[in-house]
Amino acid sequence: MLLDVRNLTVTLKTENLEVNAIDKMSLSMREGSIHGLVGETGSGKSLFARALTATLSDKWEVKADRMFWQGQDLLRLSPEQRGQIIHRDIAMIFQEPGRCLDPTATVGEQLSEVIPEAECVSSFWQRKKEIYGKVSNLLKKVGIKHYQKCYESYPHELSEGLCQKVMIAMAIARRPKLLVADEPTDAMESTTKIQILRLLQKLNESKNMSVLLITHDLDSVTQYADEMTILYSGQSVESGSVRDLLKHPFHPYTEILFNTIPRLGDDLKPKSRLTTLQGSTPPLQHLPIGCRLGPRCPRAQKECVITPKSVKLKGHVFSCHYPINLER
Amino acid sequence: MIVYFIRRFNLLVTTLFLLSLISFSLAHLFPGDAAINFSGQQSLTYQEYAKLTEELALNESYFVQYIVYMQRVVQGDFGNSFSSDASVLDDFMRVFPASAELSAYALILTAIVGLPLGLWAGVKRNSWIDKVIFSSATIANSIPIFWMGLLLMLLFSLNLAWLPISGRLNLLYEVPSDTGILLIDIALSNLDNKYQIYQDALRHLVLPTITLAILPTTILIGMMRSSVINVMATPYIKAAKTKGLSTFQIIRKHVFRNAILPIIPQFGLLFNTLMTSTMITEFIFSWPGIGHWLIEAIYQRDYPVIQAALLLVSSFMVVINVLSDIVHTLLNPLVRKEING
C-alpha cells in the first residue's frame, strides 16, 4: 500500500462553530495506480489533499486512526519529518494553473528553482547551463514542443493547458511517488483536458508515479482511473475499482451518480428531465446527523440517523445501512 | 509600447504647459508691477523701465507675453531675486543640490527601513510583531513632522548634546562647492583633515535625515504590508509552498518582487510628500536647500523667486511621477500585458 488513510476527520474550528468538514473518511491507494477521488463541490475533496500535504491553516484540525505513507504514520511524525517526507514524495498540481504560477517570473526561472540542487553534478560556473538542460528536458517530457519559447515566456503569455503542463513539469522535477492532481482540468477545453489527462496517464505508466485524481468530472475518472473513492459531504460513500463500481454499485448514491451521466443511445425523449437526486448538498453549518446523505437518499430509513460503519465486500468498501445490488 | 510612452510624454507636456501658465499668470496676479515681478529689478529709471516693458512685450497681448516668457524660461532667465539681486536660476542651482542630497539620503533610509519592516509585518500578519510594527507606523504617521523635528532637536542636540542643532557643516570648515553635494565636495577638495570634516558633515546629516524619513517610511510600511498580504493570499504562493521551497526562498523569490511592483507607481506620490516635508525640515534645521530658500522668499515677498521655484519644483515632481510610471511599466510584465492587449 502506498497510502492508507483510515477514519480521517478534519475539523474546522472557529470561535462559534466546530464542524467536521471531513467525517471519518477512508482511502487507500496501491502503488502505481491512478486513483480517482470524486465528489460534488464542497464534499471535501480538496480538503483531503491539503490535509494529506499538511498545507491547512491553524483553523483546521486533522485527526485520523491512521495515515500510513508507505508504512509510516504521517500523523505520528514531527512536523519537520513529515514535511520532509511530503516534500520528497508528494507533489501537487491545482486547478486554474495560470494563477498558480508567479506572474512576474518567467517559466524558466520558476522551473529552475525546483530542480533539486543535490542532482546537479557540474561545478558552479556550469550550473546554469546544466539547469537549463534539465528544465528543457522536463518541458520536453510533458510534451511541450517549443520548449525554448516556453522557457522565456511569462505565465500570462501561455494558454491554460500549457500552464498546467508547466505545473506538471514542476511537479515531476523531484520524481515524486504520488502526484495529487486537484481538479487539474477544471474549466479547460475538452481537447486540452484530454491532453492533460493523457499526459498524467503516460507519466503514471512510464514513471510508475501514482496519481490521485481529484475531480468532479465522472467521465475522466471512469476513463483514466483504476480505482475510485466517492465522497459525499465529507463522508466516504464507496470505493473500489472503477469497473466494479460501474457494474455493481452497492451504495445508492454511487448508482444515482453514474445515472446522472447522460449517455448516447439512452433513448432520451426531447425535453424529458435528466436523472438527478432531489435536493442539494447540505452546507457546512447544517449537516445532518448520521449518514449525511440521509435526507436525500431514496432508501433512507430510521436507522440512517446513525453513521453507518464501512463494510468491505467483494473488493468494495462502502458505508450504507441499506445497500443495493446485494441480492445478485 | 511606444504608443504608451508617447501617451505618458503627452501627459508630461500637458502638465508642464499648465504649470507654466500658472507661473506666468502669477507675475500679473502678484501685487506690484508686472515688469518688476518678471525681471526682479526693483530700482529702475524711466528709460530702463520702458526698455524692459518692450523686451517683455508687456504692451502686447497676453499670448505674446506668454511666448516671450516661455522663451526666457527656456533660456534659463527667471529674472533676479529681490533679496539677493542674483539670478534666480543661479540661486536655485546653488540650493538645489543640498535639498537633493538630503532627500536622497532620506529616501534611501526610507527604503532600507520601510521595505523590510513592511515585508515582515505582512508575512507575519496578525502576529504581535505585525501589531507592533503597524501600530508604531500609524503613530509615527500621525505625528506632525515639524513637531517631531523640534522634539528630536530638543532631545539629541540640546539635552544630550550629541548632535549639532542646525546647518550642513561646522563653520570652522570651508569646503569649496563644486557639485553642491557636500559629501562629494569633501572628497574632491584638497583639505587635509577630511576625516574630521566627514564626521562633522555626517553628524549634521543625522537629525534632518531621520526627521525627513519618518513620514515616507510609515507610508511605505503601510503600502508594503498590504501589498504583501495581498500577495500571500494568491494561489501561486500557496502552490509555491507545496513545491517544497522554504519560507525564506518563497519570500525572496516570489513575495518580494510581486509585492514591490504595485508600489513603484506610488513611489511618485511618496516623493511628493517627501518634497513638502523637505521644505519643513530644511526650515527647522536651517538646511540651505530649496525649502529654506522658498520659505524665505515667501517671507520676504520675493515674487520672482516664488514664481520660478513653483515652476521648477513642480516640474521636477511631475517628471519624477512620470518616470516612476515608466519604470513600473518596464519592470512589471503584467502591465506590459495590459498595454499590449
Explain how this protein is built.
Chain A has 328 residues and is α/β, with parallel strands linked by helices. Chain A has one domain: Rossmann fold (3-Layer(aba) Sandwich). Chain A contains 10 helices and 13 strands. In chain A, the strands form 2 sheets. An 8-stranded mixed beta sheet of chain A has the order 7-8-9-3-10-11-13-12, with helices on both faces. In chain A, helix 4 (127-141) crosses helix 6 and helix 6 runs parallel beside helix 7. The model of chain A has no long low-confidence stretch (mean pLDDT 82). Chain B has 2 domains: 2-75, no CATH class; 88-301, MetI-like fold (Orthogonal Bundle). Chain B is built from 15 helices and no strands. Chain B is globular and about 85 Å long. Chain B starts with a helix and ends with a helix. The mean pLDDT of chain B is 82. The A-B interface holds A 53, 55, 87, 91-92, 94, 96, 99-105, 113-114, 154, 156-157, 167, 170, 174 and B 234-236, 238-245, 249, 253-254, 257-258, 261, 332-334, 337.
Q: Can you tell me the CATH superfamily of the largest domain in chain B? A: MetI-like
Strand order of the largest sheet of chain A: 7-8-9-3-10-11-13-12
CATH class of chain A: Alpha Beta
Number-wise, the strands of chain B total: 0
- State the end-to-end distance of chain B: 11 Å
- On the 0 to 100 scale, the average pLDDT of chain B is 82
- Give, in order, the helices and strands of chain B: HHHHHHHHHHHHHHH
Q: In terms of per-residue confidence, which ranges of chain B show pLDDT below 50 for 5 or more consecutive residues?
A: none
Proper CATH architecture of chain A: 3-Layer(aba) Sandwich
Say what the CATH topology of the largest domain in chain B is: MetI-like fold
Counting DSSP H or I runs of 4 or more residues, the number of helices of chain B is 15
Largest sheet of chain A, if any?
A: 8 strands, mixed
Tell me roughly what share of residues is in helical segments of chain A.
25-40%
Largest interface: A-B, 22 and 21 residues
Query: Averaged pLDDT of chain A, please?
Result: 82
